[in-house]
Amino acid sequence: MKPFLHLFLAFFLLANAEEEDPVECARFCPEDLRAAVFSPKLKRRVDFLQKTINAAIDGLQTLQKKSSVLPDDLKTQMGVKLDGEKGGPENLKIQLNDLIGQLLRAENRAWNRVIDTHADILDKTLAPKAPKSLSDMKTEIEGLSKSLKDTEESFEPLMAELGSSIGKLLSPMMMILEGMMQIGLKGEMGVDNLKGMVDNLMGKVLLKMVTNKLEEKKEKVEPVLFGDHIDLTEKLAKDFYVLGRKLNLPEFWKGELSRFGENGVYHTSEDEEENLDDEDVNFMTAIVEKYIKLV
Fold first, then answer.
1. For the segment 57-80, what is each residue's pLDDT rounded down to a tens digit?
2. Do the domain assignments include residue 4?
3. Per-position b or e across 264-280, b if 16+ CB within 10 A of its CB
C-alpha cells in the first residue's frame, strides 16, 4: 500500500499546485518590468556612453599631444588653441565616472520609490500612518523620467567642455580637409576613399563634420544621452494614467511586461537602440557641432 500512498500524495500535491497557478499573477510587480526591460536597456546605453566618451577623451589627449609639438607660428597660422582646458582629459574621465555613478544611484532611488509605493498600496500594514494611493504611484512613475532628465542636464558641463575642446583642435583641420575634398571630390580625396583611410574616432568625426558642411546640412542633430530611455519611462507613465484605475496593480504590471517585451508594441531591438556601426561617430559629431560655437 505504501507505493500507492506515495503515488496518491504526489498526485494530490500536483493537483494543488495546478490549482494555485492563477494566483501567480499576484507576483507581477515593478521589479519584474525593471529587471526584464529597463535595467538591461539602461546598461547597454551606459556601456555605450562610457566606451564612446572615453574614446573621445583619449582622442582629445592624442590631438593635444600632437598639436603641442607644432612651432608656435604654425599653431597661430592654423588657429590651434590649447588653452582653457579645465584640468585636461584625465579630469574629464573623473567627471564621467562621477556622473555615471550619480545616474545609477538616481535611477535606483527612483525605481525603489515606485517599488515601495506598490508594496504599500497592496499591503496597508506597511505604512499605516501614511497610506499610499494610486495617485502616489502615478507621481512616483512620473518621477522615473524626471530623474533621467535631471541626470541628463548634469552631463551638460562635461559635454560642453569635451565638445569645445575637441572643436578647438579640429577647426583648423576642417578648413584644410574641406579645401582638399573640394578639389578632389571624386578622386583620392573623395568621401568614400577617405572613409577607408580613417580608423580612429577623431578622424571619423572630423570627416563627418566636413561632409556635413559640404552637404550644407543646416539642421544640427542634438546629441542624445538618454532620450530613448526617457521615452520608455514616459510611455509607462502614460499607460498608468490610462489603465492604472481600470486594472489592479498586478494586472497592470503584467500587461506592461507584454507591451514592453520582445513581441510588445514598445519593444525596440538592440540594433534599433544602437543604430548599428556609426552611432559613436554620429554621437560625438553632434556633441562637437553643438559646442564648437564655444571655440
1. 999 998 888 776 554 544 444 444
2. no
3. eeeeeeeeeeeeeeeeb
